[in-house]
């Protein structure tokens, strides 16, 4: 065999080894790019949900979100980020990948989860519902106290023995309860408060995730949803401000190995009744958002109120000159 023949054989062998490696590298690169796209889509959806959420009421102490509206913005943003705005089937698949959404507020939290109900044909259907607002309640069995924590230093203590209820800044209560160790220093108070709140959030999320697994199994989905371990700093972000926790799991990556995309996203945003915008339609039916007192606002027309320009834009409204 001539030297040129050996060279050709060597070239073909090298090519046979090199091509699969190159294909694998390209696949890994494509998967990494898709992972970044999905990460951004989920994180942006969480931020958009919080930023666009409309304040329902404000008593000077607690701020309440319109949770259903926030969820609507979340999925609207998520579908856009995943590139499935016009694909109803993919949208339903994405919805199934979100077993729980949890809103944290100053004095409690609530969870959006999937439940089932009987339909008119005798079968069962999935329906997403909210839990009642759940307090950050700590059972102090040693001192027979029920302690209700908040995002701040305010605390409510109920004496189990006589039903006496005391509210106030924790430093003002330590003289009333000198034997309660976690009221005697800020470090002990914060440690107990954080442990109480995070314990409630994780326990309830795990419960509803397990419930989602049972419903998913009935729907023929074999993927097992589970609450991942989160960094302490992520949890701390949820117990100092209004927040949204979203578990997204089980979305197929299509990488040839059956991998799934998963994300545990945490967002927080203090929503205040600051600047309000009023959405109204012109004679052509086009929506515009205006500042309060703008002469262009048709006062006889029913107006929609939003508390950020972004929320107005997501409703299809354009900015009036008064907002510049």
In short:
With 324 residues, the protein is α+β, with helices and mostly antiparallel strands. It is built from seven helices and 15 strands. Residues 21-25 and 55-62 have low confidence and may be disordered.
Characteristic key phrases:
324 residues, five-stranded antiparallel sheet, single chain, alpha+beta, 27% strand, 7 helices
Break the fold down into its secondary structure elements and pairings.
Blueprint: H1 3-52, E1 55-58, E2 63-65, H2 67-81, H3 88-96, E3 100-105, E4 108-118, E5 124-130, E6 136-140, E7 145-149, E8 154-159, E9 165-169, H4 170-173, H5 186-218, H6 232-238, E10 243-252, E11 260-268, E12 277-281, E13 287-291, E14 304-306, H7 309-314, E15 318-319
Parallel strand pairs: 13-15
Antiparallel strand pairs: 1-2, 3-4, 3-10, 4-5, 6-7, 7-8, 8-9, 10-11, 12-13, 12-14
Would you write up a description of this structure?
The protein is of the alpha+beta class and 324 residues long. The protein has a domain at 274-324. The chain contains seven helices and 15 strands. It has helices at 3-52, 67-81, 88-96, 170-173, 186-218, 232-238, 309-314, and strands at residues 55-58, 63-65, 100-105, 108-118, 124-130, 136-140, 145-149, 154-159, 165-169, 243-252, 260-268, 277-281, 287-291, 304-306, 318-319. It has a five-stranded antiparallel sheet, sandwiched between helices. A four-stranded antiparallel sheet has the order 6-7-8-9. Strands 14-12-13-15 form a four-stranded mixed sheet. Helix 1 (3-52) packs antiparallel against helix 2. The radius of gyration is 26 Å and the shape is globular. The N and C termini lie far apart (81 Å).
